[in-house]
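From the methods appendix. Each design record in this collection lists the tokenized structure first, followed by the designed amino acid sequence. Records were kept in a plain field format so they could be parsed without special tools. The example shown here is representative of the layout used throughout.

RECORD:
FOLD TOKENS (737 positions):
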């Protein structure tokens, strides 16, 4: 019998030179680490007392909690079972994939095929695969929602080609996945910032994960359902705070609007075509020679005045910032970066690589002193009246290939901090905006890690104006949401290439259901602002953007709920209906909050589609036509999409023709669908952190088949003047003041 040890309630068992430590963080979260001294860069464990006992057995020890049994074998493998003996997760010996024999890869290259070298992993954990397993999350990797049978590498990568399902690495590394099994759920988070591999059963026998370096350290989440697991995961890594309300409006971008005149023309064109516009984004060409924290004196000579003028019209300006700082001895930011020791080094010398400004240096955002310096620059930049900052190229990217692994960012090497580089840049930017404005920061980042959602919005990166980029967007968004990310979107219309009218129509029909709604396009593509298209497309675009503004209260409620418990803003159908058969692998339908189901058109030339409604009664959002749960087919002309509300749903909306979010309308409209249901609605000032001090309202609305009742759960903010309740049979106006 190998003796175990207990130290501060942490169980440890040694096998040779290796030791496994088992730390029960909460009754449903357990840390399994081979390096108890490892300090996480993102996990902030909030402990809850957990009752557990130890039972000695012939092949190891069983650690028994009130909810499950965790078996630690003498070889340090683990198994978790329920009390009825049914396995939750069982570790086994890792073996090479017999379906991937080692070949002479030079033969592949001669044929012109890509040949990827295998990773040299510092550790691997392999587990038994069950027939009906479903694997979800892991950020926004392209491909099916259920990742069973696929392999991914988490290494933040600027991949400019089309993002298809065979691309293993993209911009984000969120090492969390959720497994849905016949006998329950579990979640797993690998707490490694190094390049990591996740294989979800390509050999049809096992799933496994590992990392090329760092501590062998991971967390198991053993909740009763998917919602509980995501709540626990986000409790460790952080949840998004509420965004500024205006960020839920429509935003327009391009690489690049080249001067003040072009920006003013864009704004004028939106007004002329009566399409609401909340913000305009300035890409890299607004800068002076791509130097961050500068603006071109010839292109934007009066940037501060332009920003103020636009703001007076209800339009905010968001500017891009890249991490690369131009090597220029006359450039103050560069001089400060060098003199302060804020940049990466190689072999004791300042490390330089090439990005947009030419030769550039890279800030060591992983160091607190560098983040403080960067935050100060951001704070000063915000004095121009800028409303938000968009962080790009922060994988970190370069024009000369990947940065060497041994580049030093302060006390850490590049191979360790690569995946968290964008995370730390977003954090520093967030703190700078907050210090400058005392309001909720708006940060967008391309690269991120687990927990970045506490500081930043994300988007899916440089997609293409092709239907596959649109098709995979639904599963990308659901995967992000199941990975704990709250606020995300895509480049509507696609970033690279020319977007045809049909695709633009279908994309905005999907984009309206993204928390972050932005149209963005590449330098060498046709202009894809909505007014650049034909009359029908302009009309459809206008309709959906106006719809977006009406539905803002519903989105805001979903974001509020996420900030409380990590609930996904969008989710796969199985999330709310886990027992229903046939929902596990739906890639092209989603739940938007818990009351609305969306089934968009995501393929070319399609004017109808089949779709699944879960069990119960569902009502067309616009016509109130009722359908029972099951498989249906419906015509979907260009400019339309399928939106259904569940029985008894209550959907809060702003009045028709709302087109600016700086001031909340005095009236709230409630759509009441047939049946009985309850709904909690949140309201605050939408700008600052006063809600953390109780300055908000919580309304509980009850729908009794079209009859509305209201209960105040919390009152700390001026209420709406009136609420208009609209059901299929009646309309009621309730004055609250």
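DESIGN:
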């Amino acid at each position: 019998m190998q003796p175990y040890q207990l130290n501060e309630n942490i169980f440890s068992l040694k096998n040779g030179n290796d030791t496994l430590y088992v730390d029960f963080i909460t009754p449903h979260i357990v840390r399994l680490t081979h390096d108890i001294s490892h300090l996480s860069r993102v996990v902030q464990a909030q402990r809850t007392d957990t009752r557990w006992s130890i039972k000695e057995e012939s092949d190891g020890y069983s650690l028994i909690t009130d909810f499950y049994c965790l078996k630690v074998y003498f070889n340090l493998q683990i198994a978790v079972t329920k009390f009825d003996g049914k396995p939750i997760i069982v570790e086994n010996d890792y073996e090479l994939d017999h379906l991937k024999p080692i070949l002479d890869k030079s033969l592949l290259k001669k044929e012109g095929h890509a040949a990827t070298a295998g990773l040299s992993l510092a550790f691997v954990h392999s587990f038994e695969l069950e027939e009906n397993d479903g694997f979800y999350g892991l950020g926004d990797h392209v491909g099916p929602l259920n990742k069973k049978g696929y392999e991914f590498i988490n290494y933040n990568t600027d991949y400019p080609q089309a993002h298809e399902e065979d691309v293993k690495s993209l911009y984000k590394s969120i090492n969390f996945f959720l497994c849905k099994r016949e006998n329950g759920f579990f979640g797993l988070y690998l707490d490694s910032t190094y390049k990591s591999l996740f294989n979800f059963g390509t050999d049809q026998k096992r799933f496994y994960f590992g990392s090329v370096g760092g501590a062998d350290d991971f967390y198991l989440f053993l909740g009763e359902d998917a919602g509980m697991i995501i709540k626990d995961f986000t409790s460790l890594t952080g949840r998004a705070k509420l965004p500024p309300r205006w960020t839920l409006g429509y935003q327009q971008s391009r690489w690049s609007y080249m001067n003040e005149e072009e920006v003013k023309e864009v704004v004028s064109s939106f007004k002329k075509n009566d399409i609401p516009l909340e913000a305009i984004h300035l890409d890299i060409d607004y800068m002076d020679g791509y130097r961050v924290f500068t603006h071109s004196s010839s292109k934007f000579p009066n940037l501060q005045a332009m920003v103020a003028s636009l703001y007076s019209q209800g339009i905010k300006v968001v500017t891009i910032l890249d991490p690369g700082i131009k090597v220029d001895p006359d450039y103050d930011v560069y001089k400060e970066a060098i003199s302060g020791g804020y940049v990466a080094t190689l072999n004791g010398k300042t490390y330089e690589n090439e990005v947009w400004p030419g030769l550039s240096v890279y800030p060591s955002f992983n160091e607190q002193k560098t983040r403080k310096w960067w935050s100060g620059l951001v704070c000063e930049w915000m004095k121009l009246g800028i409303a938000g900052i968009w962080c790009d190229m922060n994988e970190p990217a370069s024009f000369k290939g990947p940065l060497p692994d041994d580049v030093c960012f302060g006390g850490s090497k590049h191979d360790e901090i690569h995946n968290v580089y964008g995370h730390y840049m977003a954090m520093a930017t967030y703190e700078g905006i907050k210090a400058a404005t005392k309001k909720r920061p708006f940060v967008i980042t391309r690269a991120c890690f687990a927990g970045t959602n506490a500081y930043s919005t994300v988007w899916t990166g440089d997609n293409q104006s092709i239907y596959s980029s649109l098709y995979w967007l639904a599963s990308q968004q659901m995967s992000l949401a199941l990975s704990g990310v709250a606020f995300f979107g895509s480049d509507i219309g696609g970033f690279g290439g020319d977007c045809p009218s049909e695709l633009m129509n279908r994309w905005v029909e999907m984009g309206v259901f993204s928390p972050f709604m932005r149209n963005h396009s590449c330098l060498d593509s046709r202009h894809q602002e909505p007014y650049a298209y034909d009359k029908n497309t302009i009309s459809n675009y206008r309709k959906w953007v106006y719809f977006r503004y009406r539905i803002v209260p519903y989105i805001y409620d979903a974001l509020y709920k996420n900030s409380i418990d990590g609930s996904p803003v969008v989710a796969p159908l199985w999330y709310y209906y886990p027992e229903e058969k046939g929902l596990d692998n739906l890639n092209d339908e989603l739940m938007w909050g818990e009351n609305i189901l969306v089934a968009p058109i995501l393929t070319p030339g399609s004017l109808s589609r089949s779709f699944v409604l879960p069990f119960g009664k569902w009502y067309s959002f616009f016509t109130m036509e009722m359908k029972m749960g099951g498989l249906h087919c419906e015509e979907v002309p260009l400019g339309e999409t399928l939106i259904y509300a569940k029985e008894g749903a209550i959907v809060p909306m702003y009045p028709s023709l709302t087109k600016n979010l700086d001031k909340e309308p005095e009236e709230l409209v409630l759509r009441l669908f047939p049946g009985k249901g309850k709904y909690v609605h949140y309201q605050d000032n939408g700008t600052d952190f006063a809600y953390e001090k109780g300055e908000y309202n919580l309304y509980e609305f009850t729908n009794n088949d079209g009859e509305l009742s209201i209960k105040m759960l919390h009152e700390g903010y001026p209420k709406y003047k009136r609420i208009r309740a609209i059901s299929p049979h009646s309309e009621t106006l309730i004055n609250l003041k």
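APPENDIX NOTE: The domain at 650-735 is CATH 2.60.40.1180 (Immunoglobulin-like).
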